[in-house]
Amino acid sequence: MEIEAKFVAAPAVFDALRRLPALGPFQLIAQADLEVQRNIYYDTADGRMRATKHGLRVRQIGARQIATLKSAATLTDGIASRGEWEQDVPGNDPQAWPEGELRSRVLALIGETPLLPILEMETQRQHIYALRDAARVAEISLDEGVFVVGQRREPFQELEVELLEDGQRTNFDALIALLRAQFPLSPEPRSKLERGLMVALKR
User: Fold this and answer.
1) What is the 3-class SS of 171-196, one letter each residue?
2) CB 85 within 8 A of CB 103
């Protein structure tokens, strides 16, 4: 289960967060290196992923490829909860992926129908970890990138806060409240896939 909040934020907010050592009881630790991602989203020609409200992405970071399947999100007070299954994979063909829940779920959705790329996204991400009492609560991601649809390139900027596996939900909610109180953040209820597909519809 993925629990996250997403916001539209101005560049000044990103700059302030990079310099901020703490927020209330939370220590903020910014990672110096940017994570460069190439993300490609897939669906079948007849749109089986979209029809079942799933999103399938293969993300490349260096030589590593990570496939992620997400189910539809439930939104409560701007915080999204959804099913998420993720695994390192050798390519974009689910038939060749390692046995496991991710592969089983994808094949159950598409059968033997081939996948086609529907959207590409290039992202530079900076991670900031929020800790309370030395324990990691959440990962704050400062995302700057572009949606790529054919020859069209549309930039985006997004602040994402995700609850980490060992983090407590009460701490996560407190962190979100502090961020919203200190910075001018606009909730973004749409996924990046939804936003990117809207760019594609503009063609």
Assistant:
1) HHHHHHHHHHHHCCCEECCCCHHHHH
2) no
The residue with tokens 């490609």 is 40
- The amino acid that residue 99 corresponds to is E
The model carries a pTM of: 0.93
The rounded distance, in Å, linking the Cα atoms of 26 and 167 is: 12
What CATH architecture does domain 2-201 belong to? Beta Barrel (2.40)
Which tokens go with 31? 């990672």
Q: How far is CA 74 from the centre of its chain?
A: 15
Q: Give the C-alpha separation, 140 to 75, whole Å.
A: 19
pLDDT in tens, 137-173: 999 999 999 999 888 899 999 999 999 999 999 999 9
Q: Which two tokens stand for residue 87?
A: 């695994």
- Overall size of the chain counted in residues: 203
pLDDT tens track for 101-141 = 999 999 999 999 999 999 999 999 999 999 999 999 999 99
Instruction: Report domain extents, the chain.
Output: 2-201
Cβ proximity of 40 and 119 under 8 Å: yes
Written as one letter, the residue type at 23 is L
Measure the N-to-C terminal CA separation of the chain; round to a whole number of Å: 34
